[in-house]
Fold this sequence. Notes:
Layout: H1 2-20, H2 27-50, H3 53-94, E1 99-106, E2 112-119, H4 122-137, E3 144-147
Parallel strand pairs: 2-3
Antiparallel strand pairs: 1-2
Amino acid sequence: MEIVKSIIFFLILSTLVSQLIDGTNYKPYVNLVIGFMLLSFMIQPILSLTGNKEILQDTFVKISSDTEKISFQDKAQEVKEEQMQKEIQTVLEKNKIEVLDIDLELDAKGNLFSADIEVSDAKKKEKQIKTILSRFYNVKSSNINISE
């Protein structure tokens, strides 16, 4: 009976949370978490009868640690991309090339895969920019796009 009370309380609480975040971008994510929590509430009595309570807890710990690793890797990728943008801007400015915008694409290892660079006077400087970047980052010049 205690389990039924806790599930009902959780459903009321989750409905309240859903109403509070209604219309935001986080709603699908919150609904996903609420669904997983409800599923775990419903599985707990079955696992306690079979004596496998620790399986559920170990699974949640593993999922949590994997999620932290993924978010850390994404953040590291973003930081590396920002660092490369600053490096490219510095290198090009040392060569007296005015950079307006830089958009980079990194591969899974964090190496530069392609670059879209917007500079003033692009037609005159295109070959020079491609040479500098292809040598500095070991990128194919065909993956470097220069525009005004």
